[in-house]
Amino acid sequence: xxxxxxxxxxxxxxxxxxxxxFAASLCQGxxxxxxxxxxxxxxxxxxxxxxVRGYSHRPYFEDRRADFIDRFAQFAVIAAREAVxxxxxxxxxxxxxxxxxxxxxxxxxxxxxxxxxxxxxKFGHNRVHPLTIPKTMANAGASHISMEFGITGPSFxxxxxxxSAAHAIGQACWMIRSGMTDLAITGxxxxxxxxxxxxxxxxxxxxxxxxxxxxxxxxRGMVLGEGAAMLxxxxxEAARARGAQIHxxxxxxxxxxxxxxxxxPSAEGAARAMRAALRDAQLAPEQIGYINAHGxxxxxxxxxxxxxxxxxxxxxxxRLAVSSTKSMHGHGLGAAxxxxxxxxxxxxxxxxxPPTANFNEPDPECDLDIIPNQARRxxxxxxxxxxxxxxxxxxxxxxxxx
Amino acid sequence: xxxxxxxxxxxxxxxxxxxxxxxxxxxSEFQQLGIDSMDAVEILFALENEFDISIPDDEVxxxxxxxxxxxxxxxxxxxxxxDTAASQ
Lengths: 402, 88
Fold this sequence. Notes:
The complex is a heterodimer.
Chain A lengths: L3 E10 L5 H10 L5 E2 L12 E2 L13 H4 L4 H17 L5 H6 L1 E5 L5 H13 L9 H5 L3 H10 L5 E4 L5 H15 L5 E7 L4 H10 L22 E9 H6 L6 E10 L9 H15 L6 E5 L6 H15 L7 E3 L2 H4 L6 H15 L1 E2 L22 E2 L4 E7 L4 E9 L1
Helix pairs in contact in A: 3-7, 8-14, 11-12
Chain B lengths: L1 H16 L12 H4 L3 H15 L5 H4 L5 H22 L1
């Protein structure tokens, strides 16, 4: 079995439009959450989100090409470009033919769909724009990345709500490990700020009216985020042989289903996914030094995740650092795990653990070392990135310092 | 009037949770009725439609039983009537 290296990283998010900007925001504990600008929120109970502020396709795509690509898929291509450029890939016909693209997305091209449905339902028009379907489909991100680079190998999209990108990255890792492919572009992208979907989130009563305060006693829920993060994965030996920079090594992937409730989290299901990732990485719990938590800041998630971490790590849970970077980049749904895997990779590489921002007050039911508000210098060898989706579908990635 | 209102609330709960109306009383705890957090969110949605009110998240965080729910609805309906009266 081959070892798997992360040799390329790309991101566009509320924390900036490049990896250095994203990394700097995490180190400073700077939150990208603010008033939502792309949608009128005056009829909503919440007004804040983690948007890619002031986004226009102009610096990235010609107008005619942008006509074909929804915002969420534009983000996917933009992040993939940075990842591929950074990795210094030298394309050959063979590599293009065998490279894989595996992306995550939860809601696909919602803003395109929203406009189309308004045409027929609200304005009573009898036709919808003909690109509504190809712009809305959740696999459009993977498709446009394949066209961008001329990649003709195995390419597909995984949709498991808030775990989508973790399932995608884990699958890509296993495909590299098994020898199925020698290069994978993988991650997630999302652009959920359309009025219809914001109303649907409002109805669930899980969105905070102000900001996202994971593990804080006064937490009031999640805050939605948008953007994309993409990684380039290669076999470790091949990456070393060509002199590529190894940002981190992906050493394990674990999955589980709660089989319990469509929205309520289960500590048992989350714990099984973390144990599966440790087993896959052949690691003992005591070897993990940092966990990038799912940490949505809903009352239920943070208590359940704390219980799950305690169940898996026992006494070592008190020596572990845990933080939720959703407090800064927001909950990116299908992109969330890609942001978080990137944050964990940067934490290992830079020796700086990102904080849980917006933290006010300890909660006895979330009594972990959650790195409140200020990043911490620490050399960590192994980290986990947790994702526990609505629907009870869990995915956990294990990383090793490169 | 208030009794009529509590009956309407009980009916909304029974209809939404799909349980016999007889099972739901003013003294029922959500736990007894098997109402979990997602059920509660659905009931709030149905109550907002039934009474044409908007129930803020902060009002519902600590509601655990039918009596608290009825009292909360009564308060919001009274506030709505006062608003309507004031604007006339």
